[in-house]
Amino acid sequence: MTAPFYLPAGDEVDLFRAAYDQRIPVLLKGPTGCGKTRFVEYMAWEIAKQRTGTPPDEPLVTITCHDDLTAADLVGRYLLSAEGTTWLDGPLTRAARTGAICYLDEVVEARKDTTVVLHSLTDHRRTLPLERLGTTVAAHPDFLLVVSYNPGYQVTSKDLKPSTRQRFLAIEFGYPDPELEAEIIAHEAGVPADVAEALAALGARIRNLDAADLLDGPSTRLLVHAGALIGRGVAPRRACDLALVLATSDDRDVQDAVRQVAHAVFAA
Amino acid sequence: MTAPFYLPAGDEVDLFRAAYDQRIPVLLKGPTGCGKTRFVEYMAWEIAKQRTGTPPDEPLVTITCHDDLTAADLVGRYLLSAEGTTWLDGPLTRAARTGAICYLDEVVEARKDTTVVLHSLTDHRRTLPLERLGTTVAAHPDFLLVVSYNPGYQVTSKDLKPSTRQRFLAIEFGYPDPELEAEIIAHEAGVPADVAEALAALGARIRNLDAADLLDGPSTRLLVHAGALIGRGVAPRRACDLALVLATSDDRDVQDAVRQVAHAVFAA
Amino acid sequence: MTAPFYLPAGDEVDLFRAAYDQRIPVLLKGPTGCGKTRFVEYMAWEIAKQRTGTPPDEPLVTITCHDDLTAADLVGRYLLSAEGTTWLDGPLTRAARTGAICYLDEVVEARKDTTVVLHSLTDHRRTLPLERLGTTVAAHPDFLLVVSYNPGYQVTSKDLKPSTRQRFLAIEFGYPDPELEAEIIAHEAGVPADVAEALAALGARIRNLDAADLLDGPSTRLLVHAGALIGRGVAPRRACDLALVLATSDDRDVQDAVRQVAHAVFAA
Amino acid sequence: MTAPFYLPAGDEVDLFRAAYDQRIPVLLKGPTGCGKTRFVEYMAWEIAKQRTGTPPDEPLVTITCHDDLTAADLVGRYLLSAEGTTWLDGPLTRAARTGAICYLDEVVEARKDTTVVLHSLTDHRRTLPLERLGTTVAAHPDFLLVVSYNPGYQVTSKDLKPSTRQRFLAIEFGYPDPELEAEIIAHEAGVPADVAEALAALGARIRNLDAADLLDGPSTRLLVHAGALIGRGVAPRRACDLALVLATSDDRDVQDAVRQVAHAVFAA
Amino acid sequence: MTAPFYLPAGDEVDLFRAAYDQRIPVLLKGPTGCGKTRFVEYMAWEIAKQRTGTPPDEPLVTITCHDDLTAADLVGRYLLSAEGTTWLDGPLTRAARTGAICYLDEVVEARKDTTVVLHSLTDHRRTLPLERLGTTVAAHPDFLLVVSYNPGYQVTSKDLKPSTRQRFLAIEFGYPDPELEAEIIAHEAGVPADVAEALAALGARIRNLDAADLLDGPSTRLLVHAGALIGRGVAPRRACDLALVLATSDDRDVQDAVRQVAHAVFAA
Amino acid sequence: MTAPFYLPAGDEVDLFRAAYDQRIPVLLKGPTGCGKTRFVEYMAWEIAKQRTGTPPDEPLVTITCHDDLTAADLVGRYLLSAEGTTWLDGPLTRAARTGAICYLDEVVEARKDTTVVLHSLTDHRRTLPLERLGTTVAAHPDFLLVVSYNPGYQVTSKDLKPSTRQRFLAIEFGYPDPELEAEIIAHEAGVPADVAEALAALGARIRNLDAADLLDGPSTRLLVHAGALIGRGVAPRRACDLALVLATSDDRDVQDAVRQVAHAVFAA
User: Fold this and answer.
1) Which terminus of chain F is less hemmed in, N or C, by CB atoms within 10 Å?
2) Cα-Cα-Cα-Cα dihedral sign, residues B253, B255, B261, B267
3) Which of B2, B45, B68, B93 to mutate to test the interface with C (most CBs of C within 10 A)?
């Protein structure tokens, strides 16, 4: 595993380190596509590097949460085989046993039964009861649980319960500032600095548009997409059309507003 | 596999090519029956033709999404056999392994758990975790995910989440312009040019009718249907009745309005 | 199989023929009990008669749709047997393989996942993916899909999606005109012409009653029922009570209105 | 099987006979506890007596419908055994094969998928497709379907669809008139004629109370219960309390109204 | 089995006896914790004592109803074993076979399909169809069905259907009068008569409080709890706090009102 | 098992002891993170120490309740193995058999069928029917059921039913007073007394903030988290940001209010 590409935006690396040292679970808050997944990949890689014993084969176990994710999907289940039933650990159990970092992306999308499974792993007990096996797994000393969500488009019915939430330290993420974002775009899309800077500036201007329908301003990822198309010879305005205008909204008014900003940045 | 019949309407072939070269997932937006499925078939055929290694047996894997499509339907499941359980790859896994283009038609119809499965395949990771197998598939370098939907009749409760949507470049489709549409009708229905032109003109006029109940103007497919009936000797007005009037609406007022336009185009 | 009893009411036989020759799927619209099922039986019999190869054992496969009809009910499923699992084709797959006409009665009652399964069978592809088998069935050249519904009592939440609907030619059915209906009643119930004519006239008059609660005027079937009772010696007014008054509504006012018409037609 | 106890209240026996002779399905409408179940038992016994061939072991198959009754509960299902799976006919299939009368009590309680299963058995086809077996059962010539429901407390969301309803002849039932009801009470509860007559009169008076909360007037069964307690030495007023007052409502006002009537009929 | 402790409050023992002698099903109505369960235990013991044949091992079969209780939970189900499937009688079937009293506690909590299963056991048929076995159990002559519910906190959507309800005789229960209740408290909690009397008086006073939020006045059980704590040396006011104040409500105002009454009865 | 760390805040230890001696089930009410789980661990340890016979391997069985917790999850289920099916006791059954204390955390989150399973274990019967095994477990004499919930954020639809609730003695918990809380923080986070005291004072002040959105004041656990970060060298204001500001709310106004209090307590 080579070092994941990650450019720190502030003190998030130190804060995560401090939390990890105390094994306090961490909650990452921030908009979609701002780099939370990359950050966790980077931290897991950093931490695995410094482990004294054998690092786990899989230092990071990522689970994208959704409405239909059951507790069994996390914890494990029996499979029927020719010899009867065999137990298969779920990703959470695997992480707890091997001392990996377990990352639950968009945790509020999970059903209540999923989040409740996390409780005994996130307090002084650090255990995971496998009720269907009739045993309890004590978490490996290196194990840590990390969760994330985007407070921007939460429905209130899908908030974390206080009894779950008050188990985490929260680190807040935002979009990178234009200079840093230009650096990322140049690196990821392989475009010259001036194109990257223009795209980063465009991103910042769109995010400032006061359009209620524009739920999430364009992510860094979308700016990289636009850059990649431009790098392939697509005209900048057309590239913005595909990556920023049509991809962010179906509303014609919002599309026009975004397109106008793009045209102001890139001459025809 | 012979080349699928597809007449480009604009720069969509080049744009798709640019996206494919960067392996950026593509979202096709447009009304029903305007040719999105044919376009993907055409692009998959074009791309397979140019592959250096062995092209996959099945260069395009199409999945029509619906409410009850589970993650297991996409990813795969265990089947019980005499030797215990055997794993059967789902179509998404098959496409990821063989480097096919995987096309999810009407993606917003899918449940959240289905779309979330797509996340790690549509960012820098390009992986598909098969949790029930306990392994992760790295996508074949030629693999690309394409999705489509029709913004015209979305219910807001069924929109894509920003965290899903901001993973795609969007290409917009509309109905072909009358000349192109006439060419398609002539080819598909096997009718003389004047009939095809009359039907194309009729299609354009119906789409302009300001009838709130007429959700989707008649698709090119319906115009081809009308042409096919005329080709079989059905009177043009009666053919329009079956293919355009009764097939598009149950509302008597809307039906009358459509019928009036048809009668204006085709003399009794 | 002897020829099903069917008396054409207009050009529906020719139109169906034209559609079948082009293999364009057909949608039959009309009230309950007006003869749609018989019509399809008749057409399937006619078409099977003229087939050059071996006609299928079962020229018509009928499926009555409902809320709980799953895609697996249509397509097929695995059964567990002593030798592991065996695949059992569903009725749609059976029809597609053998070249039967597949008739989905009351198609709007089906869930979305059921109707979506029909998409690739009803456009230029004419294929049915059997995802759980990992294969795709190419429809037999003689296969055709026919669906029906009753626009009279649709709930809007149960309308066909445009992307489904715009795959069909629509043929509209109504109640037979009194002369034809009398002929049918006489044939089916075995009553003299005057009784059959009186019942047909009664049917027409009840259908014209302006009673909002009377959702579906009495079907031809109910008139046949009344005739059958009269043929067994039940007094005509009492027969109408059972077959037309009590069978069509629980509302006392509607019942009285219907009864009054019956009494006007049949003297005590 | 000895003859079931049933006292005809009108022409219902002849009407049922006429319908049965034509094999037209029958719908019984009437309040709870008015004798519909007994009537069907009696008719099934009468018809079995007159059969020329071997009568079925079980001349009447009764199914009480409810929300969770699945189509499989009616039609049959596979059971897993040591030899793989074995098919077990459901009660409807059993009745159709053996020529029994199949009685679906409170049919509107059933889900839509259940009632739809009845369609092909209740028109000219008289067949029952067993999709999971891949076969179709042709109904025995003696088979008849009978359904019942209580129009008094239907929720409109649970009405029969016209396409189901217009397959039946309807026979209406009410409470027996006081003389007949007294005869029934005397026979069933084993009480002298004067007590039975008092209870029948009481029943009629309570049913006439204009209390909106009193959904279903006391059934004949409840009057029999009261008689049975009186026969065991319980004071008549106390017996009415248990059988008629507390058993019909939780509303104190309704209870008082009913109790007052009871006290007027039975002196302390 | 030793005689269950039960102190009759009125004529309920004789009434139950009369109903049992006629095998008329019984419905017990009354608030929570007023002794319905004990009463049924007592009656089952009394009846088992007087049986001439061998009494059943289990004279009373109790089932606490809830939303998720399925018909199979009552009637029985197949279990998969090495020899294929074995049938396991449910508690209702067991009771019907052995002639036990079957007691369904809080019957309105059950789903409709559960209550419908009871129908043929509670009228002249006294049978239980085991559809999945393909057989019907005739109830043992000693079998009786008893159900209970609390009319105080019914939601109307969870009322018994008239067709179910009108199968039972209803016996009403209330809280015991203070003298009887004091006797019960003294016996159960092992406290001196004066403490028991004070608690019984307190119970009566709290039940008379006009507090809308106080859904169910404290049950006899809670007064016994308070007595038990006092017997263990807990100060009476503190004991009332735990057993009566905090246990009955989360509303601070209701708690204060209850506490005030407790303080009036027990000096500090 | 070493003694769990628990500092009593009042008479809760004696009250629990009194309840346990009488085997009266206990309900713990109080906000999240105030120490209810620790208290039960402590009491289970204390009680196990004093047992005369062999103490159970697992003196405390904890189950965190949630919406999808089924009765089978508590009671047990069959597992399919090569020899057929084997029964696996659930945690509740295990506790009842071995005489452990069974603790249901957040009991109101459980579905009704779960709580109903508790009924016969929490009254004079002290039994647990295992319907699927066809047997009944008599609880071990040392068994006790303890449940908890947080009255602060109950939705009324999720209240305990009176028939469940009136089976428990209730002990109320609050946040520890500042002195005790400082002692806990110092012990758990390993920080000097002055930091612990400042954090305890901060906790008390935030809990007094009149902000409707601040559902649950910060738990002791969050104050310990803040202390742990400070102990790792994170600046106190930044530590409060992560542990108290961002972790308790997504509302910017609430965050500002909390941050202001934190800044007042900790100088920059």
Assistant:
1) C
2) negative
3) B68
Q: Where in chain C does DSSP place strands (E)? A: 26-29, 60-64, 76-81, 84-89, 101-105, 127-130, 135-138, 144-149, 169-172
Contacts of F21 in chain E (CB under 8 A): 232
Cα B177–chain centre separation: 18
CA distance D242 to D251: 14
Q: Do A22 and F68 touch (CB under 8 A)?
A: no
What's the mean pLDDT in A27-42? Answer: 90
Find tokens 């706090």 and name the residue. E241
The pLDDT tens digits for F92-106 are 999 999 999 999 998
Which positions ≥6 away from C97 have C-beta within 8 Å?
C89, C137, C140
Q: Which of A242, A244, A245, A249 to mutate to test binding with chain B, by most B CBs within 10 Å of its CB?
A: A242
D86: its two tokens = 């074995």
Within B83-149, residue ranges assigned H as helices are 91-98, 112-117
On whether the CB atoms of residues D183 and D160 are closer than 8 A, the answer is no
The two structure tokens encoding residue C122: 């009803």
**Amino acid occupying residue C125:** R
Helices assigned H by DSSP within B82-169: 91-98, 112-117, 162-165
Q: Packing angle between helix C252-265 and helix C193-208, nearest 10 degrees?
A: 140
The domains of chain D are located at 12-172, 178-265
Rounded Cα distance, B235 and B195, in Å: 12
Torsion of CA C150, C156, C160, C162, to 10 degrees: 130
Indicate the pairing of strand E135-138 with strand E127-130.
antiparallel
Angle of helix C12-21 relative to helix B220-231, nearest 10 degrees, comes to 110
Question: Which chains lie within 8 Å of chain D at 3 or more CB pairs, if any?
Answer: C, E
Q: Which residues of E touch F154 (CB under 8 A)?
A: 250
CA–CA dist D24, D144 (Å, integer): 7
Residue matched to tokens 């395009």: B60
Mutate to test the interface with D, among E114, E160, E166 (most CBs of D within 10 A): E166
Residue A75 C-alpha, separation from nearest chain F C-alpha, in angstroms: 14
pLDDT digits (tens, 9 = 90+) for C108-118: 888 777 788 89
B72 — contact with chain C (CB < 8 Å)? no
| SS3 at position B105 | strand
Q: What is the pTM of this model?
A: 0.80
Give tens-digit pLDDT for C156-199.
556 787 888 889 999 999 899 999 999 999 999 999 999 999 99
Contact status, residue C101 vs residue C61, Cβ threshold 8 Å: yes
Of E73, E215, E243, Cβ closest to residue F169:
E243
pLDDT score of D28: 96
Instruction: State the CB neighbour count (10 A cutoff) for residue E158.
Output: 15
Q: In 3D, which of A55, A68, A134, A67 has the Cα closest to residue A99?
A: A55
Torsion region of C265: left, alpha or beta (phi above 0 gives left; psi -120 to 50 gives alpha): alpha
Average pLDDT of the residues in A217-236: 93
CATH homologous superfamily for the domain D12-172? P-loop containing nucleotide triphosphate hydrolases (3.40.50.300)
* CB distance F185 to F224 below 8 Å: yes
Are β-strands C144-149 and C101-105 bridged in parallel, bridged antiparallel, or unpaired? parallel
C86 touches B at CB < 8 Å: no
Percent of chain E with pLDDT over 70: 92
Running DSSP on this structure, what letter comes out for residue D151? Answer: G
CB-CB: which of C66, C218, C229 is closest to D113? C66
What are the pLDDT digits (tens) for E19-75? 999 999 999 998 888 889 999 999 999 999 887 777 778 899 999 888 778 888 899
